[in-house]
């Protein structure tokens, strides 16, 4: 009985939610911190070029992290919508009657119950050999082999006598 877990109990779903929210919060903190630093530096007449232009780079990095978090939230919402639209098959659960004396479990193939006084199991029955057929030929296994297949003896062992003139 294989069923997909509910989305609420799915660990990867919650990892995506937490990572997306963390990326949004981190990206927003970087962007706001960078903008505040740029405002302070731009209003300062003694600011250096490095102080002004590094703030812009940090704002771009923060915006990228913020955008990745927003994409993650969009994926979470799309996954939740897709899960809500897909209907799950009904799973039938069989209840066990523990008060019943009927043992309906099948015994192992070829196993016989032990006699009360004997410690040796009964002899195993021999199984009939399986007929192997070509996968792409649809012929029942009861059909006799064609004459050319009966004439060729591929399965018989051949002894090499060493006097085969054709191989020399």
Task: Explain this structure.
- It is a single chain.
- With 168 residues, the protein is mainly α.
- The protein is 45% helix and 0% strand.
- The chain contains three helices and no strands.
- It has helices spanning 11-43, 49-85, 147-151.
- Helix 1 (11-43) runs antiparallel to helix 2 (49-85).
- The longest helix has 37 residues, at 49-85.
Largest sheet: none
- pLDDT < 50 stretches: none
Count of helical regions: 3
What's the helical proportion of residues?
40-55%
Shape: elongated
Task: Describe the structure using short key phrases.
mainly alpha, 45% helix, elongated, single chain, 3 helices
What secondary-structure arrangement, pairings included, does this model have?
Layout lengths: L10 H33 L5 H37 L61 H5 L17
How would you sum up this structure in a few lines?
The protein has 168 residues and is an all-alpha fold. Helices cover 45% and strands 0% of the residues.
């Amino acid at each position: 009985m294989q069923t997909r877990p509910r989305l609420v109990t799915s660990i990867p779903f919650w990892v995506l939610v937490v990572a997306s929210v963390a990326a949004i919060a981190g990206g927003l903190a970087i962007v706001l911190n960078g903008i505040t630093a740029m405002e302070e530096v731009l209003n300062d007449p003694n600011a250096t070029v490095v102080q002004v232009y590094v703030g812009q780079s940090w704002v771009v990095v923060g915006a990228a992290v913020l955008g990745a978090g927003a994409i993650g939230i969009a994926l979470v919402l799309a996954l939740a919508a897709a899960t809500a639209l897909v209907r799950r098959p009904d799973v039938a659960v069989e209840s066990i009657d523990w008060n019943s004396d009927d043992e309906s479990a099948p015994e192992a193939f070829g196993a016989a119950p032990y006699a009360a006084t004997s410690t040796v199991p009964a002899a195993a029955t021999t199984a009939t050999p399986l007929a192997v057929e070509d996968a792409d030929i649809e012929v029942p296994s009861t059909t006799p082999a064609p004459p050319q297949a009966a004439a060729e003896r591929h399965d018989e062992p051949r002894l090499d006598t060493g006097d085969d003139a054709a191989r020399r």
